[in-house]
Structures are given as C-alpha cells and as structure tokens.
C-alpha cells in the first residue's frame, strides 16, 4: 500500500488539497542523489520544495560515482550497458527502493489522477498542478532546453571550469575529490562539447538557447491575474510547467550563461523566474 506524506502548511495546499495532506502512516524518508548542476535533479528539488516535502540530498562524485555504486544492489539494470543505472537523479524511498529518471520519479511520486491528488499519490499536489499540458512542457524542457544548457556552459575551458566550481562547496567531498572533479570534470565536459553539439545537431548554442527562451516568454505573454507577468498556464500560482522550465534554468545559476538568460528580452522572463523562485521557496 502506498502512503501519503505529511506536508507542512503551504499556500499550495490552502484549497482543495488541505485534507489530503494528512499522512496515512509514517512517511518513508526521501533521499535525492544528485549533481548540483544537473537540470533533471533540480527539477526534483524544486517540485519537492514547492510541495514542502522534506528530503535529504546526497551529492554524487561525478568521477568515481561511488555514492551510486554503493546502491548497485537496488538500482535497476541499464539494459544497454548490462550494468546498474549510473545516472542522476536517483530518489531513494526509504532504504530499499530506488527510483530513477526524473520524469518517471515525479510520475511515481506525484498525483496519479488527472488534475489533482489521487488516492494513489505518494505526494499530494494541488488540483491542476500536474496535468497533461505540464507534462508536455516537461518533455520540452528535458529534450530541448536542458540539452541546450550543456554546450552553453562549456563553450570555453574557463566556463567549463566555472561550471564545475560547485564541487568546492560539497562538504562530503575530500580535497582530492574537489580538485579531481573540478579539473578532470571540466576538461572532460569541455572536450565533449563538440560531440554533443553534433549529436543534437546544434550549430549556434547561444542562438538556439535564446530561441528556446523566446518560446517561454511567448507562453507567458499577457498579464497574470494579479498583475505583472503571469504563469505558463495563467493560474494564480505556478504549476509543474513553470517549475520544470524554472528549475532547468536554475541549475546554471551563478554561471555566465545564466546572466545572459536573465537579460533576455523585455525583462518578463526574469520577472517570471523570480516569481517562481519565491513560490518554490527553496530551503
Ligand atoms: N532522462 C534522465 C537523464 C538523466 C541524466 O542524463 N543525468 C546526467 C546528469 S545531468 C547523468 O547522470 N549523466 C551520466 C554521467 O554523468 O555519467 C532523467 O531525466 O533523469
């Protein structure tokens, strides 16, 4: 039997779902295994933060992946490679169950009935939060927007090195983990840039990213109900579509590319981004 989580009181639950926020039994703890800079991991974090669900974060060493290797027994098999799945995000539910692939993780954790939290939902969400339109945006983010970020943050070695500077802030990494990850990780990412661009047929990565941002601002077009820029589905609060787009862009916060993203167009993208960040309320 699946169990619901207790959720702290949140504006997101102030209406129809308030009742469904009561736990039916003690919730199993959630642990997110991630790279700080991974857009797919940021999507999970933003959704959990928005829904006020508590979880632990474990940073994975991008070179050794030892934190994932320790879970080999419960990770699913990567059919193509014939060995355990070695990508992030992974969400541990309790200690025995490992969920993989961001969209499948969220589909498993979030409401199962259309437009609201259903009886099978592990994490209740407000009505209208996780609809087909939201999932379409998620597919676009995963297959287009997030794919464009990598070649943008690795245009030069120095940008790639900057992208890997997050490792210095990971308390669980040793000095050598930090040195190795930043230098080798940055070099490998920088060298892989051309191959990735070829794979996804990207010629001008900055131009393609700006075009993708145009798609977002077009969807935001017009004023929100409470004035200023609105949300993608024109509701009073962000839905999963907003959070999917926002969290992909958030994964590169602090980097050169993010500054260009914030300066895009007439300022409405930045205004929307800050509004979503506030609603998500990262812990
Ligand atoms: N479709 C997967 C994609 C996950 C993915 O590609 N994760 C990257 C990090 S952003 C990864 O772990 N790559 C393997 C590696 O770093 O070796 C999802 O949505 O979770």
Automatic annotation (TrEMBL):
Annotated Gene Ontology cellular component terms: mitochondrion
Listed SUPFAM superfamilies: GST C-terminal domain-like, Thioredoxin-like
Domain GST N-terminal: 28-117
The organism's place on the tree of life at top rank: Eukaryota
Coiled-coil region(s): none
Name of this protein: GST N-terminal domain-containing protein
Species: Chromera velia CCMP2878
């Amino acid at each position: 039997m699946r169990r619901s989580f207790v959720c702290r009181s949140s504006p997101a639950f102030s209406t129809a779902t308030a009742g469904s926020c009561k736990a039916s039994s003690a919730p199993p703890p959630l642990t997110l295994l991630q790279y700080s800079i991974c857009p797919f991991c940021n999507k999970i974090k933003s959704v959990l933060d928005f829904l006020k669900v508590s979880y632990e974060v474990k940073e994975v060493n991008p070179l050794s992946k030892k934190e994932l290797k320790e879970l080999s027994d419960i990770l699913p098999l990567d059919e193509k490679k014939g060995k355990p799945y070695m990508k992030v995000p992974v969400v541990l539910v309790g200690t025995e169950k490992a969920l993989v692939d961001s969209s499948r993780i969220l589909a498993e954790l979030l409401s199962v009935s259309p437009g609201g939290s259903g009886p099978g939902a592990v994490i209740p969400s407000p009505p209208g939060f996780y609809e087909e339109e939201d999932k379409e945006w998620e597919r676009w983010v995963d297959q287009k927007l997030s794919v464009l970020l990598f070649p943008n943050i690795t245009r030069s070695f120095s940008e790639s090195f900057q992208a890997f500077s997050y490792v210095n802030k990971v308390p669980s990494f040793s000095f050598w983990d930090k040195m190795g990850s930043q230098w080798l990780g940055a070099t490998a990412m920088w060298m892989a840039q051309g191959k990735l661009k070829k794979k996804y047929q990207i010629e001008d990565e900055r131009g393609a990213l700006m075009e993708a941002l145009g798609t977002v601002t077009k969807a935001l077009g017009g004023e929100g109900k409470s004035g200023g820029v609105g949300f993608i589905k024109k509701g009073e609060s962000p839905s999963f579509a907003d959070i999917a787009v926002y969290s992909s862009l958030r994964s590169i916060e602090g980097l050169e590319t993010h500054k260009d993203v914030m300066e895009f167009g007439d300022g409405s993208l930045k205004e929307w981004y800050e509004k979503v960040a506030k609603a998500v309320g990262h812990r």
